Amino acid sequence: MLGSDYPGQVCSLARSLEVIGERWTLLILRDVFTGIRRFDELVHSLGIARTVLTRRLDALVADGVLERRAYQARPVRYEFVPTAKGQELVDVVALLMRWGDTHYPHPAGPPRQLLHHDCGGHAVPHLACSDCGQELDLNNIEARLNPALA
Amino acid sequence: MLGSDYPGQVCSLARSLEVIGERWTLLILRDVFTGIRRFDELVHSLGIARTVLTRRLDALVADGVLERRAYQARPVRYEFVPTAKGQELVDVVALLMRWGDTHYPHPAGPPRQLLHHDCGGHAVPHLACSDCGQELDLNNIEARLNPALA
Hints:
The structure is a homodimer.
Chain A: H1 12-20, H2 23-33, H3 39-46, H4 50-62, E1 66-72, E2 77-82, H5 84-87, H6 90-103, E3 112-116, E4 126-128, E5 141-145
């Protein structure tokens, strides 16, 4: 297992994985993105032990990825809503869905199809450059080290 | 821990996470994408136990994400090169780097800056629609269930 501080690593990815680098977490995010947000609904959808789910949800709330909201007063019941920071991770979930559909296809086709409301199209997400809008792949990008950290 | 078969789950993301849903795996991919591909270089870069690295690399080769290539004959030494299927995951790594830079910034700035060769720009990757090219976020996409699997 990775330690919690990645000694010697100055890496944005490593810091992200401290928060979400665990399989349950991305499945929890998948569910809250699609509207499955109540504790009991999440237990049912994920088939996860309640103690494990509680621990993961607490960590995601502490890290500001999810927000806990009471939806019922007596007894108090909570739902878990993605924050703005959490909502940004929809791109990671979408790309991993696409990768799964491509390489581990289900015989009946993709379990979920992404629709883009604005254009009405079947959106196949891809990575694009913020400057020119062109699609990015490993052959046209370079990760240059920050000289201040070299 | 998740079982290896996610009983009852028909989910592209869950299938992807079977292969790469573990923190070391994405850090290994980060390294092979930036050219750190030899076993001993990976041990040094990651600070990972050799037995753990061997197990992760074997799994990634078995799943067709990495390819093992001999770069030296006596004694035989291997490097690990991303396959086409593995190269596709650069988008996930790039988005998680960006998310880490945004929410867990390093005082000296982003450790690595992505440059887009084709336009010369500092690429901030984002998710775009394959149909219209517009940026996608949680508010303008919908994941519709495949009726054949409902």
